[in-house]
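job 3f2a | input accepted
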Amino acid sequence: MGASIYRRSLRVLIIGFFVIQMASGCSAKMDSIKDATDPLGALNNLGKTLPISIKEANHLSSDEVKNTPQKPAKQIVKGIYVSAWSAVGNKFEQLIDLVDQTDLNAMVIDVKSDSGQVTYPSAVPLVNEIGANSHVIIRDLKAMLLRLKEKHIYTIARVVVFKDPYLSMKKSNYAMVTQAGNVWKDNKGTAWVDPYKEKVWDYNIQIAKEAALLGFDEIQFDYVRFPENGKKVDQEVKFDNPNKWTKAQVIENFLKKAKEQIGGQAYLSADVFGLTTSSDNDMGIGQDWAMISKQVHYISPMLYPSHYTSGVYGIKNPDLQPYAVIRKAISDANGKNQLLVKSDSHIAEIRPWYQDFTATWVKPHKKYGTIDVKEQIKAAKEQGVEQFLLWNSSSTYSYR
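job 3f2a | predicted structure (400 res):
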């Protein structure tokens, strides 16, 4: 079985407690949990791993919390994106079979999606107050994780951070606002929360902590950036920035806070634009390779050939040349990491996202299949980068 390379040593993972402060004005829906502490929880890896409940975690002694090992051993992750809808029912079983039948060994599962919705029955107070989990898709997340752990599949919780139209709608004081004070929206009509607001940080960190409690091995922050077209955005938006931080400092400080609160219990990773591997600045979105790399265990540039413009890296039609695109992007990423080594900085391991979808909107484009995916994997592996994640928004993969 492809997934059989994932084996954990016998251990119990128990995570320390934390208390989430109740936001004012909570709805009656919160009455049953408002007096409860919200621990990060524990995992019991005794052959088959079963996450414990919040209630059970509350009875752990301080010595048990203090003396227990934490994260699983690192491994070479080869994973796929699994949307919340694909994490239930027959589709989920099909994806487990795919992992079993190949060298894949990991799944990235939506915990908080691009819409700002939380996909499981969260107990985080603000999630309940605003109804961010009012359309639950994964009704029994612990059972799902148990199923994956029985199959020795490494689990990654995807948390979309600053692209959050739901929170922006429910709490407009958290949203990015125009100079006139109205909720700002991008060119697709989507509202974003203001990355400078630390209450927004705390909200996402609380969700990430809960994901660690429920048993995820890793938290992956996506949209951990400002909107693209940075110069235009800066002209339109009035940011809440009393510290006068740069965008890159905001993103680094958010990740630093997340690492301080979660990094001992679960690995952290960050998705970044593909061009961060080659750019000498933050591209106006706050994503600086070196600054992010210092705060996470894994950095995942989204190296989809279809997302590169004509002429990038001297390639006329990037979507048609997946090997060439990845070869150059990884070469530049390795170059940046070599500079970090010289400065004695922490270096996040490179774990790229590759394209396993057909970009019909690109002209010209090609139909992507197993060969095209493996060309991307080959280009990086030749340069020492073996880990990868495959993206297909519908979680339908050609990889075999």
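job 3f2a | Residues 1-52, 54-69 have pLDDT under 50 and may be disordered.
job 3f2a | closed
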